[in-house]
Amino acid sequence: MIAFVQRTVFTVALVLFSMQSMFAQESMLAFKFSPGQNLRYKVTSNGLLEGGMFPNGRVETLIHLYYTLSVTAVDNEGTATVTFTQDSLLYWEDSMKMPYTAGEQLNGVPVAMWFSNRGMIVDVNFPADLSKEAEQYLDGVLKDFGSEPPLPGSAKGVGAEWKNDLSVYFVYGDGMAKVNNPSKALYARKENIRGKECARIEYGGNLISVRQKVGSVSGTIHHSLRDGKILRVSSKTDATIYMPVRGARAQARISTTQTREALN
């Protein structure tokens, strides 16, 4: 009887130790904004547009976008008041550098935003003196933020999964097409990026328009576990959609690979 009791106590202790180890490995997957932060990022976007409305049936694009998020305040729920400033924008079509007048108007213009600690945009104050074209460009940038799955905002361990109902927007000329993306995210493993321990989050899902699959999206997020920053996001999107052209609807395939990387 004594041996049985001792064995039972040892077994219970082992289970409790295993549970403590499991919970100790869970990390808070959320942004850790703090007043005075200046988060600098570079976005590289490679696009391929294919369809009869494009010259020679296809156009390859390249965008380099540099921007800074300056945190001015953080409330008790972790929502940050942020100034978004586009530092520079460069644009190429078929390897030729092209002007991007609408986008370049935003260079150096401060835009007030509010981000939750999950990385979701809560609100935006559009500058009053932007042209209509610049407003449309800024709206596209904001929607691009929203196409990435937000962090769960809670403690998660490796192997955790969560669902997101997202929207992906394709901007073309004066128009924009919206498709739904019911995606899944997985905390796949821990990886070191630039000497920082990160949660590698993998996500993906189909793109749905009018209940039909029109494409897919996949990507990875590297979230620094210590300071709560996103160090790198890589994504790939491929879709075939219909867009209005001269009063009619034309089919186009849009493929994009994009990387957003922290510069500090």
Task: Give a verbal description of the structure.
The protein has 264 residues and is α+β, with helices and mostly antiparallel strands. The chain has helices spanning 2-24, 101-104, 132-145; strands at 27-28, 38-50, 58-74, 80-93, 96-98, 110-115, 121-125, 155-156, 161-172, 175-193, 196-209, 212-224, 230-245, 248-262. Strands 2, 3, 4, 5, 6, 7, 9, 10, 11, 12, 13 and 14 form a twelve-stranded antiparallel β-sheet that branches. It has a two-stranded antiparallel sheet with strand order 1-8. It is globular and about 55 Å long.
Quick description:
The chain has 264 residues and is an alpha+beta fold. The protein is built from 3 helices and 14 strands. It has helices at residues 2-24, 101-104, 132-145; strands spanning 27-28, 38-50, 58-74, 80-93, 96-98, 110-115, 121-125, 155-156, 161-172, 175-193, 196-209, 212-224, 230-245, 248-262.
